[in-house]
Structure formats: C-alpha cells, structure tokens
C-alpha cells in the first residue's frame, strides 16, 4: 500500500529534522516549511543561495532526500546528505 501524506508526514518530518541539525552544523540554516508535507529550506547565509529538500519514501522501509539540481541521498545518512548539500551550495 502506498504511503499517504498523513502516514508519511511523521517519518518525513523526522528525516528532515535530522538533516536540519546536520546542515546547521556546517554553517547553513535549515528551516522546516509546510505542515502536512514538510520540506526543508537550506540557506547559505553568506551567499543567500538556497535549496529546497524533500524526503520521500523510496520503498516500504527506505527514504531518500531529494533537492534541486538532481541532488539525492539516502535519508539514513543525514551526515552525507548535509555534506552533499553544502558542496552544492558552494560551502
């Protein structure tokens, strides 16, 4: 059975919150936006560049982060995802 917005919003939010902590540790700002289907806006305060990140279920047990420019990472690795996002923003 496919995940609905209601059943996915809890895990989605948890994955995005974990990523927000990691990007903030790299000098970026993470802002969770949206109530039912949250996304993470990641901003480089020094340049003003930003990227929107979503967390999507990719299987019954796995999740991925996706962001503009073709960025993708396993949500089980928020550290690696934060490094990739920081690099994409030129940090």
Outline the structure in words.
The chain is an alpha+beta fold. It has one domain. Helix content is 34%, strand content 30%. It has 2 helices and 5 strands; from the N terminus they run H-E-E-E-E-E-H. The protein has a 5-stranded antiparallel β-sheet with strand order 1-2-3-4-5, with helices on one face. A hairpin with a 3-residue loop joins strand 4 and strand 5 (71-74). The longest helix has 20 residues, at 5-24. It is globular, with a radius of gyration of 12 Å. It starts with a helix and ends with a helix.
In terms of quaternary structure, what is this?
A: single chain
Specify the number of helices. 2
**What is the helix fraction of residues, given as a range?**
25-40%
Structural class: alpha+beta
Strand content: 25-35%
Largest sheet: 5 strands, antiparallel
| Coarse morphology | globular
Short summary of the structure?
The protein is an alpha+beta fold.
Explain the layout of strands and helices.
Layout (H helix, E strand, L loop, with lengths): L4 H20 L4 E5 L5 E5 L6 E8 L5 E5 L3 E4 L3 H11 L3
Antiparallel strand pairs: 1-2, 2-3, 3-4, 4-5
């Amino acid at each position: 059975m496919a995940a609905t917005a209601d059943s996915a919003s809890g895990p989605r939010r948890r994955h995005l919150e974990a990523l927000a902590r990691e990007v903030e540790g790299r000098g970026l700002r993470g802002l969770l936006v949206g109530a039912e289907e949250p996304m993470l806006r990641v901003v480089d305060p020094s340049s003003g560049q930003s990227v929107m990140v979503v967390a999507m279920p990719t299987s019954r047990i796995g999740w991925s982060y996706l962001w503009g420019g073709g960025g993708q990472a396993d949500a089980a690795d928020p550290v690696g995802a934060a490094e990739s996002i920081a690099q994409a923003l030129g940090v």
